[in-house]
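Thread: "does anyone have the structure for this chain?"

Original post by V.I.:
We have the sequence but no experimental structure in hand. Need at least a predicted one for the grant figures.
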Amino acid sequence: QLQLVESGGGLVQPGGSLRLSCEASEFTLDYFAIGWFRQAPGKEREGVSCIRSSGGSTNYIDSKKGRFTISRDNAKNTVYLQMNSLKPEDTGVYYCALDWADGCSPREADFGSWGQGTQVTVSS
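Reply from O.Q.:
Generated one for you, tokens below.
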């Protein structure tokens, strides 16, 4: 089963930064869009950002603009989510998933190969 693997989460103080990684060992990510999603405690999962194979990106939540940056390194078969100026409301489990159509679909149902998630906790 093709699955992505997230890493890089942890406990960080408000205002701090984290860089999340999304990797695949069984297949290349070069041709597909990769999206980052997050699920806060007691809330539904929501899209954060997505990057296409071309490097073009889509931010699903405008409030994340300027604080979160998505990027990809095809040589390392990895997609990153750089998160700066973190706030307690950014706390949650962060997931990456793959859009086979390389379109950064607005529909979560169009994404697959979900990883297990990585916990991000922003707290003093």
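V.I.: this helps a lot. The radius of gyration is 13 Å.
O.Q.: and The chain has a mean pLDDT of 93.
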